Amino acid sequence: MAIYHLSVKAISRSAGRSVVAAAAYRAGQELTDERQGLTHDYTRKQGVEDAFIVAPDGADWALDRNALWNAAEAAEKRKDAKTGREYELALPAELDAGARKELARDFARELVARYGVVADVAIHEPGREGDNRNHHAHILTTTRTAGEDGLGAKTRVLDVASTASAEIEHMRGVWARQVNMALERHQVEQRVDHRSFERQGKEQEPTRHMGVSATALERQAAREIPGREPVTDLGKQNAEIRERNRVLEAARKAMEKAQELFSGLEGVVCGRGRNPTLSRGRA
């Protein structure tokens, strides 16, 4: 079943993060952070299926990953500056590798066209111990527009609370439409929806976010005993939520089937009621 996921988060100095290090890790490459004088080597990282950069017309200099992210660091002076923005996307397991790559590229192009930023795309394979359907992409974008001469103005529309939420919701809708178009092109019946269960009018209960620590513990437990029950409180809660949702979905389908049968019987009865009355007159 195709799964919808799009999350957005900032790469910020206030959290002690370097956008150069983030780009190196996601792309599985070696990059040098000139501001800090540190080299980040992730060339031995496994699971990176592909990595490429989408830049605005004329900003060819930004296709060099090392130059791009060092420019992003150099453009910011504040100690709490946001030096990058990351979009994490779930790619449909129902598509092949080529189709997943084009889908990620299409979304990156949309980000570049709408905000004038540079988008650095890294496509990752599912983890060896996790869900083998978990194909996903990390798209790291600049927080400034890019042109022929370098980075320009800040993309404030994504930084200000009064506009950021609406922009992110718009891009969530864009991603849902792009995924569904790709599924349709490849003759896959499933569709995704970026809206919450409540907005969709569904009674399903959302699962809780696991976080890094709980996810790592669950993966370690799965390695030790494949198929075992969850070991963390969050894992157990999510298992219960999934079971409740399964029961609700089964009940919903049963109700729909019963309604279809009732409608069919109602039609038969009504049809019988419309039989012409036999004439009682003499021949």
Q: How is the secondary structure organized here?
A:
Blueprint lengths: L5 E7 L6 H9 L2 E4 L4 E4 L6 E7 L10 H10 L7 E9 L6 H19 L3 E6 L11 E6 L2 E4 L2 E5 L6 H25 L11 H4 L10 H14 L8 H41 L10
Antiparallel strand pairs: 1-5, 2-3, 4-6, 5-7, 6-7, 8-9
Helix pairs in contact: 3-4
Basic shape? globular
Report the mean per-residue pLDDT as an integer.
84
- Trace the largest sheet across and list its strands: 1-5-7-6-4
Count up the helices: 7
Task: Provide the helix percentage.
Answer: 40-55%
Count of beta strands: 9
Helical/strand content category: alpha+beta
Q: Rg, please?
A: 26 Å
Number of domains: 2
End-to-end distance, in Å? 67 Å
| Range of strand content | 15-25%
CATH level 1 name of the largest domain: Alpha Beta
User: Largest sheet, described in full?
Assistant: 5 strands, antiparallel
Order of helices and strands: EHEEEHEHEEEEHHHH
Using the coordinates shown, work out and report the CATH topology of the largest domain: BirA Bifunctional Protein, domain 2
CATH architecture of the largest domain: 2-Layer Sandwich
Unreliable sequence segments: 277-283
What does this structure look like?
Keywords: Coiled coil, Conjugation. Residues 190-210 are annotated as: Disordered. Belongs to the MobA/MobL family. With 283 residues, this protein is α+β, with helices and mostly antiparallel strands. The chain folds into 2 domains: 6-194, BirA Bifunctional Protein, domain 2, CATH 3.30.930.30; 210-272, no CATH class. It has 7 helices and 9 strands. It has helices spanning 19-27, 65-74, 97-115, 161-185, 197-200, 211-224, 233-273, and strands at residues 6-12, 30-33, 38-41, 48-54, 82-90, 119-124, 136-141, 144-147, 150-154. The strands form 3 sheets. Strands 1-5-7-6-4 form a 5-stranded antiparallel beta sheet, with helices on both faces. Strands 2-3 form a two-stranded antiparallel sheet. The radius of gyration is 26 Å and the shape is globular. The N and C termini lie far apart (67 Å). The relative contact order is 0.11.
